What we know:
The structure holds two protein chains of two kinds.
Chain A: H1 4-7, H2 17-40, H3 68-98, H4 102-132, H5 138-157, H6 163-181, H7 186-205, H8 210-221, E1 229-231, E2 282-285, E3 291-293, E4 300-302, E5 308-311, H9 312-326, H10 330-354, H11 361-388
Antiparallel strand pairs in A: 1-5, 2-3, 4-5
Chain B: H1 3-25, H2 29-53, H3 65-102, H4 110-137, H5 156-184, H6 187-205, H7 213-249
Amino acid sequence: MDxxxxxxxxxxxxxxxxxxxxxxPVSICMFTVVLLVxxxxxDPSSPSSASFSSIATAAYSESDSxxxxxxxxxxxxxSLVFVAAITLAxxxxxxxxxxxxxNFLKLYMAFSAFVVLANLGGxxxxxxxxxxxxxxDSVTFLILLFNFSVVGVFAVFMSRFSILITQGYLVVIGVxxxxxxxxxxxxxTWVLLVALAVYDLAAVLxxxxxxxxxxxxxxxxxxxxxxxVYEARPVIRNHHDSRLVQRRVWREQRPSNSSDDVENNEVVxxxxxxEEVSVSVPLIERSRAEESSETFLxxxxxxxxxxxxxxxGDFIFYSVLVGRAAMYDLxxxxxxxxxxIAGLGVTLMLLSVYQKALPALPVSxxxxxxxxxxxxxxxxxxxxxxxxxxxxx
Amino acid sequence: MTVAxxxxxxxxxxxxxxxLFVSVISRKPFLILTLLSSTLVWLVSLIVLSGLxxxxxxxxxxxxxxxxxxxxxSVCFQEGLRFLFWKLYMRLEDVLDSFADRIxxxxxxxxxxxxxxxxxxxxxxxxxxxxxxxxxxxxxFGPATFYVDRCSKVPFFLISAIIALAFVTIHTFSMVIAFExxxxxxxxxxxxVPVIHLSAGMLTLVNFASEGCVIGVPLLYLVASxxxxxxxxxxxxxxxxxxxxSGPALR
Lengths: 393, 251
């Protein structure tokens, strides 16, 4: 009685694993940002949310007394300034990459990771300590924060670190930057998100776009792009070859495996090392004259083993959208979360069809914004009407 | 309500689905994707319905027949969408089968197909619980709780969590019944799913009467247990059938 047919593993066991490998950290990042927003913003009298000046509010700072038209115009100006700053910084990155200043970029990435973890992380920790009245003295706090930041720098800077810790620190960096972006004024945030989606589309797909130039240069030189990217799958390292090349977008057509994105990962033959560097742009200017700057390359690509890589900028802006939705109501959060996940799924499907670098922001952000406004205007009234009368279907 | 009570209500509505998720669905990544996409489909259907009904809201307080119309239209729309979902699933099944052939793996088993429909149903149920129950819980954290006049014995959040649990069960298992019914062309199964959904929706209208929830909620649970029993019977029969079919064929 041959039961081998029952014992043979169905394709359902492993299909879609890579997608889940990317969805899980994105969901964790979004969930953490929503949690932080709910915990830290529930007290409207707190002074921390009052003043937040950054390059994104340089042109116009919103105040409640302005008319909607003035707010919209101001938000538009803000986004223009911000996108211009990001374009400039990305072109600077392209120039530096062209001049092969990789060590400089690498050091700058380490520095910016340290500043994010220490400065922004420290601020959020202080807010949390204040909120929960947690008893800790400043010396202990500083030592722990310093250790935390230094380990984080090593995790993203060195390529031989444990993959789980590296992934964890990347998610933490995403959470920290996203939380600070949610402190921007409301209209500015929404217009900025849409503007960034459009910018991402242009930068990756247009022939003159900076990100496309970067990708083409990296491919032609067979080098890795310096950036903070989240790699979804653990890397198996070859100890002989210390200089590994990991292509951000390229998927080599290996004859042994099928060219499908969804393949059985029993056979992992790819070996690579990473030289990851990152470049920064002035994103946040503290009024205390401390500057921290980072940019996180956006876009989605395939590592040479077929594992999906997502730029940290995508994590951040997804979480900013969801965090801003959380400031209104949790129903919008659920709607926006589903919209973003759907957008990510669509982008990944397009990735497996086109097999080249694709911008991960546009579809998700546009779907998220649409769902936010639909949920806020229509869904909420409907659902509250029904469920407050205990009528459900 | 307090955080502890809030977590309790949330677990009441979503506890069984959480255990289903952890034990069955989280083991296969494809089922997680199915769950997410069916949640999205349910959300889209809800948004379309709310867009259609928006000009007529807010409805008058104590009149029950607009709500009956609302439930009727919503259930019809969602059942129609379920049929379209099944069509999409059929296409997906073909793609998966041809992919399995290409990498010389066995085609989808019967249990695989049932697991996919279970994940789809669970997605609908979880979406219902999240939007009708959880989204009202989370703004209400604080020292007090809330009672509605029509159901004054029990806090509002508790009764909505209980109703949500019944609906989660109904949605989850009626999807399994529906997919099997469409696949086999079994008229009974095909008809019984909209009937269950509609009767469950209409039963919640009983809550309009003063203290109506005392009658309405147990009846709702009766419907939910009927769904569960019917689904169990059907699945058992199908599994026995398929085992008898493949039994004599073994060498």
